[in-house]
Design goal:
This protein has helices at 30-41, 49-52, 86-89, 113-120, 126-132, 137-152, 180-184, 194-209, 239-248, 346-369, 374-392, and strands at 3-7, 14-20, 58-61, 63-64, 67-68, 73-78, 157-165, 168-169, 216-223, 253-258, 276-278, 287-289, 297-298, 301-302, 307-313, 324-326, 333-335. The protein has 397 residues and is of the alpha+beta class. The protein has a five-stranded antiparallel β-sheet. Strand 11 and strand 12 form a beta hairpin. The longest helix is centred in the C-terminal third of the chain and has 24 residues, at 346-369. The two termini are 41 Å apart. The relative contact order is 0.17. The mean pLDDT is 95.
Length: 397
């Protein structure tokens, strides 16, 4: 079973990711991960931290001679900003008990600061915010990048683009370009609409001038996904639920829609469900859909149509014009802490969401097709596709 875990703090020495269950024999080099890490760091509206970091991965285990070994893949992503925070984040006890500098005692509304301090019985919210920071998602992107390599072996392409940011809504091309990311990444805000891109840049500039932040929505699309991943038989095997949980785990994400999502509740059934026709690509039994309003999932299983997910991110909680809070040391009213932050990280969130979708799909592929090696997994996959094609070949003749 493919699974992952991460460790590390925002200003700690490094981030660590451990990914288990990837079959042996998958070609993998550092650039496969580094490319996705660079994409995560981009986007107009990012803060000064992205000018400091230059994320790269070091394989600590699980990869040899450019191929996975089948053992856990351990990856290290150093934090270049560590040298400025070594005394603040050092593991050793404070000298003389004087306390660390840069303590956070004015929790930010909308962040994990206050709840974490209360839950974990701390007095300095830095003990909470360092791990709750979105910096952790660099390690997730690394795991997702490896899973993307696995999925690419089976013809799956995953991309994303910004459809809304702040007050601006983009017009979407139909069909979407292929590969999607080649087009989206040419925009400074990863938006496919040139006019909307300009409006988004202006909105980010205005928010920055006002000391405020902006959220938005990205559309994540996986094309080439085989029919039948996931299952209808138990709640925790339904792929739509697993995708939603993965997306909601991304910091600041507050909403997930698959296909039409909430819009489906506003329409009649005849305007929601996708009519079934003969046709389609290999591995679908010769069936296809006239539309894809379901977003590639029915009954918790992939339909063979593109998997389409919308992910909504709230504005970042660190404001340069802070909201009101309470000073933890005195109980008096105060202004929330301000730290270096982004105005908007929506374009980067799309890259993170791609990685999370890749992880969920790779997990489902492993469950369906198994195998200790890539060759064994491919043989199972090919046999499944061939059997489905043969079973329904000639229907209606």
């Amino acid at each position: 079973m493919i699974r992952f875990t991460t460790a590390g703090e925002s200003h700690g020495k490094a981030l660590v990711a451990v990914l288990e269950g990837v079959p042996a024999g998958l070609g993998l080099v550092a650039e496969d991960v580094d490319h996705q890490l660079r994409r995560r760091m981009g986007g107009y509206g990012r803060g000064a931290r992205m000018k400091i970091e230059a994320d790269t991965v070091e394989y600590v285990s699980g990869v040899r001679a450019g191929e996975t070994l089948g053992s856990p893949i351990a990856m290290l992503i150093p934090n270049r900003d560590w040298e400025n925070w070594a005394d603040v984040m050092a593991a050793e006890p404070d000298a003389g008990g004087s306390g660390r500098r840069r303590q956070v005692t004015r929790p930010r509304p909308g962040h994990a600061d206050l709840v974490g301090v209360l839950k974990y019985d701390r007095t300095d919210a830095r003990d909470i915010l360092e791990r709750a920071s979105a910096r952790e998602t660099a390690a997730r992107v690394a795991c997702g990048a490896v899973c993307r390599r696995l999925l690419a072996e089976f013809g799956v392409e995953i991309g994303s683009h910004v459809v809304e940011l702040g007050p601006v809504r983009a017009s979407l091309p139909d069909p979407l370009p292929t590969p999607l990311n080649d087009a989206a990444d040419r925009s400074p805000v990863r938006c496919l609409d040139a006019e909307a891109t300009e409006a988004i840049v202006r909105a980010i500039d205005a928010a920055k001038h006002a000391g405020d932040t902006l959220g938005g929505i990205v559309e994540v699309v996986a094309r080439g996904v085989v029919l039948g991943l996931g299952s209808h038989v138990s709640w925790d095997r339904k792929l739509d639920g697993r995708v939603a949980q993965a997306m909601m785990s991304i910091p600041a994400v507050k909403g997930v829609e698959i296909g039409l999502g909430f819009e489906a509740a506003r329409r009649q059934g005849s305007e929601v469900h996708d009519e079934i026709i003969r046709g389609g690509r290999s591995g679908t039994g010769g069936f296809a859909r006239r539309t894809n309003r379901a977003g590639g999932l029915e009954g918790g299983m992939t339909t063979g149509e593109p998997l389409v997910v919308h992910v909504a991110m709230k504005p970042i909680s660190t404001l340069m014009q802070p909201l009101g809070t309470v000073e933890l040391r005195t109980g008096e009213p105060a202004q929330a802490q301000s730290e270096r932050s982004d105005v908007s990280a929506v374009p980067a969130m799309g890259v993170i969401a791609e990685g999370m979708l890749a992880i969920v799909l790779a997990q489902a592929m492993g469950e369906k097709f198994g195998g200790d090696s890539l060759g064994e997994m491919r043989a199972s996959f090919d046999a499944y596709v061939e059997r489905m094609n043969r079973r329904w070949d000639g229907l209606g003749e």
